[in-house]
Amino acid sequence: MGQTIVLATHNAGKIREFQSALTPLGYDVIPVHDILPDIKEPEETGTTFAENARIKAAYYMKATGKPCLADDSGIIADALGDRPGIYSARYAGDDCDDEKNNQKLIADLSVVPPKERIVHYICILVLLYPDGKEIRSSGWCDGILRDYYAGHNGFGYDPLFYIPELGKTMAELTMAEKNSISHRGEALERLVSSLR
């Protein structure tokens, strides 16, 4: 049995991605809700992806006493001064869902010519240990935001996030294709290199 890493997420897709990358290295990768099913989520008071990832990692590490891996990720649009940024998950308000967030981003970019709707996915990972050791990694992916949906494999902004080199949206990619080019896949690859 290897060292345990607690995952600071309830997102099933992220859990699968993290487990498939870290389990082969000999780690027991366990979502926090498997250890503490009733724990409340921390308030993300940071002003950057890195600050919010660290807040989550520190909170769950303290609660479990085990190394904790947290991520903070989102989408930024050049034409909107890097918004939605850290507010990507609640861009259309606190009670919104993927559909409302997508529609707000489409509306906000509607004044921009389609080919100039340049967007980037960003992911920051923070792995924090009880002894104070910290490993950070980041990933980035470029695309164009379309105003119509394509694909069913993703979540969030994936059906709108078009990658010109591949001629597909994120939601049209297989899991293997997505992991090879996505922001989270890149950040995870860098983390794995650090852990090796």
Count of spatially separate domains: 1
CATH topology: Maf protein
Question: Can you tell me the CATH architecture?
Answer: Alpha-Beta Complex
Q: What is the alpha-carbon Rg in Å?
A: 17 Å
Q: Could you say which structural class the secondary elements and strand pairing correspond to?
A: alpha+beta
Number of strands: 8
**DSSP helix count?**
6
Distance between the termini: 17 Å
Low-pLDDT stretches are none
Look at the structure and give the CATH class: Alpha Beta
Which geometry do the CA atoms define? globular
% residues in beta strands: 15-25%
Largest beta-sheet details: 8 strands, mixed
Q: Provide mean pLDDT, rounded.
A: 94
Order of helices and strands: EHEHHEEHEEEEHH
Considering DSSP H and I runs of 4 or more, what fraction of the residues is helical? 25-40%
What's the structural blueprint in terms of helices and strands?
Blueprint: E1 4-7, H1 12-22, E2 28-31, H2 32-35, H3 49-64, E3 68-77, E4 83-84, H4 98-109, E5 118-128, E6 134-145, E7 161-163, E8 168-169, H5 175-181, H6 183-195
Parallel strand pairs: 1-2, 1-3
Antiparallel strand pairs: 3-4, 3-5, 5-6, 6-7, 7-8
Description:
With 196 residues, this protein is α+β, with helices and mostly antiparallel strands. The chain is built from six helices and eight strands. It starts with a strand and ends with a helix. Strands 1, 2, 3, 4, 5, 6, 7 and 8 form an eight-stranded mixed β-sheet that branches. Helix content is 32%, strand content 24%. Helix 1 runs parallel beside helix 6 and helix 5 (175-181) packs across helix 6. It has helices at 12-22, 32-35, 49-64, 98-109, 175-181, 183-195; strands at 4-7, 28-31, 68-77, 83-84, 118-128, 134-145, 161-163, 168-169. The mean pLDDT is 94. It has one domain: Maf protein (Alpha-Beta Complex), CATH 3.90.950.10.
